[in-house]
User: Fold these one by one.
Assistant:
Number 1:
Amino acid sequence: MKNILLYITFLLLLGSCENSTKTHEENSNPPNIIYILADDLGYGDVGVFGQKNFQTPNLDRLANGGMKFLQHYSGSTVCAPSRSALMTGQHTGHTFIRGNSEWGFTIEKEGQFPLASEEITIAEVLKSAGYVTGAFGKWGLGYPGSEGDPTNQGFNVFFGYNCQRVAHNYYPTHLWDNLDKALLDGNDGKTRGTYAPSVIHQKALSFLDDNKDKPFFMYYPNVIPHAELAAPETYMEKYRGKFLPEKKYVKKGSPDKYSVGGYNSQEESHAAFVAMVHILDEQVGQIIDKVHELGIAENTLIIFSSDNGPHLEGGADPDYFDSNGPLRGYKRDLYEGGIRVPTMAYWPTQIAPGSTSDHISAFWDFFPTAIEIAGLEKDSLDIDGISFLPELKGENQQKHPYLYWEFTERGGRQAVRMKQWKGVKMDMSKNPNAPIALYNVDEDIEEKNDIASQHPDIVMQIERIMKEEHLPSELFQFQFEKNNTDN
C-alpha cells in the first residue's frame, strides 16, 4: 500500500513540478543546490567546530561566509541508511534502506541492496522540475543497473563508486561513469596509480562548468576520510612526522598488497588522515571558488555535512585528534558522537555571513528544504522532514517535536531527540522493552548522566515515539521481528 501511495503522490507532484517549471522559465532560473557529503568526518574534525590539531581553512571559510549548524544530525550512524534518509526525506524508521547490506550483487559482486523503484528521491523531484542532476562520489544504494542505481533514481549523470565496499579503497581498478566502467590507469590491485577522489572531483567541477546556465542539483558524496587512510605523496609529505606518536597501521587479512574491499591504509595513519582531510578541504574550497568564477554564487546554495560520526577502522584514531569534540560515541553509535555531524550552509545574499544556528535538524530535512528552494509543492509527499530554508534566511523556523533513529546492528538500538532530551535504548533487538537511558544534552552534551529515573514522564513519551515511529521492514529487522516471522 505504501508503494502505491508513493507512486500516486509522485504523479501528483510531477504535475506541480511542471507548473513550477513553467513559472521559473518565464522568470529566471531557480537556485542551484550543491550538497557535499563527507564520509565519516567527525563533529570535531573541522576548525570552526573545535579542531586544534590541524587546519581546515576552506571549510571554515564556508561556515564563516554562511551558517554553522550546531545541532544537525545525520540520517543514521552508518553509510547506506544515512544516504537513504537524505535522498528520501524519511528517517530510519520509515526509509527503505535502513542498514549496510551486501545483498543484491551483480555477477561481479559489487553493490548494495537497491532502493525500490517506487521510492521517490529528491533527485527525481528536482529532475522532473527541470533541474540537471549529477552525483559524484560514493552511492551505496543499489548495484549497477538495478532500480537503485543513481541513474534510475533521478540523476542525469553519475560518476564515482557505486559500491560502498569498493569505496573502501582510494586506488580502485575502476569507477562508474553512469553504467559504463571507467578504468583507472595504474591500479591493478598490486600497484597504486590513480587516486580516485581526484578524478571524481574533476568530474564534479566539469559538471558545474557544463551547467552554469541551467538550474542544477549536484550531490557530491565525497569518500574522504573513510578508511582506508591513504593519500598521494604530495600531501603525505606535508604531514609526515608531525603527529607523533604515530599510530602504525598493520594490514590484516588478504595477502594481496592492495586488495579491493579491504583497508589498504598507509602505515603512517595519523599523517594519512590529516592529509586526506586536507584534500577534502581543498576540494571544498575549489567548489566555492568555481561558483564565484562562474558568476553563479549568489544563486547557489552549498551545504556541507558528514554521513555519520568518525570511524575506528583502518588505523583511524579519532581519540588522538579529538574528532568527536565534546560528544560521546563513534560511528555505529546512536549517542551524539555517532550522529551529530558538522554542518554548514553557504549562500551569498541569502544567508547572513558568520551566522550560527541551534536549530535541531536532520538529513531528512534536506528534501523539503530543496523542494521549497525550487519553488515546488510538498504537501502530498510522504516525508518526515521540515524545510530549514526559513532558518537559513533568518526567518521564523518551524521546529520538530522530535527526531528518531533506529539501527538494527550491534544488538539493536533506538534513539529520540526531543527538545533538550535525548533517549537511547540499547540491546533491544531481542528485547524491544529494554530500558531507555535519558540525557539532557543541553546540560550534558557528553551524555554521561542517565537521569531516566528522575523523569519517568519524559521516558514514557520517548518510549511511545520509539514504538510509533518504527514501521516494520521486510529487509531490515530487529531480532524480535525475525522471531515473530519464524513463528
Note: The first strand starts at residue 32 and ends at 38.
Number 2:
Amino acid sequence: MKLQLKQYYLFTLLFSMIFLYSCDEDDAAPAEENEEEVITDIKLIFTNKADANDKVEAKAKDPDGEGTKELEVSDAISLKAATSYTLTFEIMNNLETPGEDIGEEVKEEGAEHQIFFSFTDDAFSDPAGNGNIDNASDKINYKDTDSNGNPIGLITEWTTGSNAVSNGEFVVRLQHQPDVKTSTSTATTGDTDFNLKFVLNIQ
C-alpha cells in the first residue's frame, strides 16, 4: 500500500511539473520580428536649389516585390556642373492597391533607418570625397534627423564640382537598423533594404 501511495505522489508531482512547464512555454511572448520593407519602385529626385522647376529624376523598379527579381536601375543621373541640388526620394510598394508609401514609413521609423551614399571621388564639391558607405564618418549633408538626432537621409543637399564627370557612379543604400542605430552606425549595421548603383554624369 505504501509503495502504491508513493508511486501515486511521484506521478502527481511529475504531471504537475509538466503542466507548469507547458503553461510557461505558452505564456512566453513571441520573438519580435523586424521585417524588411517590400519595395517595388524608387525614384531619386534632384531639385536645383536655384530653380525648383529644374528637376532630375532617376528610377529603379522591382515588379515582383519579394519575388526572385531585384530592383533594377533604369536611368542615369545627369546633373549640371557647379550647381546645388536637394535630393529627395519616392519609395513605394506598388504591389498594394493603392500603393504603400514606404518612404513615409521610413520617415516614421527614422530611428531604425539610415540611407548611406557613395559616389565617384570628388564629383561633388560639397560634400567632397567619395561618400560614407566605406567610412560612416565621412561628410554627407543630411537635412533630416530621427527622434535621437541621428541622420535618416531622405533629404540631402549636394553641390556638383566644376569638372565634368562621365559614366561615374552614385550609390544609395538604405539600412534597416532596429535597436542598433546610433550616431556611429555604418553601412553594414543592420540589414540592407536596397543598394542601388546609378550612372552619374556631370556636365
Note: Confidence is low (pLDDT under 50) at residues 29-33.
Number 3:
Amino acid sequence: MAGKPRQYLCFVILCWGCDVAIKTIRSRDNAFVKQLIALAHSSRERRKAGLTVLDGIHLVRAYVDAQGAPHAIAVAESALEREEVVALLAHRAISGQVNVLADNLMAEASALESPAFLMATITTPEPAAIPTNASVLVLEDLQDPGNVGSLLRSAAAAGIEHILTSKTTAFAWSPKVLRAAQGAHFSINIVEGADVAAFLKNYRGRSLALVPRGEGVQSLYAQNLAGAIAILVGNEGSGLSAETLQAASRRVTIPMPGNIESLNAAAAGAICLFEMVRQRVPSKHS
C-alpha cells in the first residue's frame, strides 16, 4: 500500500466497509475502456448492446437512488478523494467492481464539455404497455433532444408516469436527452417508436392536441383536465401530423396576448402539464 497514490489511501479509508473492489485501468486497449468510449459516442453501439451511458455523477446518483446498482461504474483516477464519489460508492445498492480510469481515458469517454469524473452504464429499460386509461404525454416528431429531455423532466415533475413517442422523435435514451431530463427517465415509463394514431384509436381517455391556432381550437384553460388525459405535442416547426390531429379528441391552444407567434415545444408542453396539476392538486389556501 506504501506505493499507492494519496487518493487511493483516502478512498480506502473513507470507503472502509464498502462492498466494492477497485480495478485501475490506464490502457486505451482495455476492453472495458473501448466499450465505454464506443457506447458514449455511438447510438448504434448503444442500441446493439442494449446499454445506456450515464455521463456525470448527477445522473448516476439519480439512477442509483431510483433503480439500484448500474451495469458498470467508471471513476476518474483524480476523483477518488471527492466526497460525493465516496458517498455514492458507499451506497447500499453499490457492490462489485469499480473501474478507476486514468484521467485522459475518462476525458475521451465523456461527451461533456467539461469531462465527467464519474460515468456508468445501465441496461436500457424495457418499456411497459401504457394502460388505455392512464394520463400520458405523447411526443410526435420532436427533433431536438433538449426539448425531448425537458418535456420528460416536466412530465415526471407533474406526476405523469407514461410517455409515448413516435418513430421520428429523438431517441429518449441518447446522452443529450438524458442530460436535459436530469434523471426523469428513472421514474417514468417511456414507450418509443409508437404509431401515435393507432394508440389514440384505442385510448379511453381524452386526447388534447396542442396547436398554436386554427378553426375550432379551444383555450387550454377552458378544459376540464380531470381523468385520463393524453397531451399531444408535435414537431418544433410543423406541429402535429394531420392524422394525429384528426384522431385527437380536441385541439387546444395556450392563449398568448403578446406579439409572439408560438411557444417553444418544451415550454408549451410544460404549461399544459402544470395546468393539469393546477386543476388536480388542491391549493393549500382553498
Note: Residues 265-280 form the longest helix (16 residues).
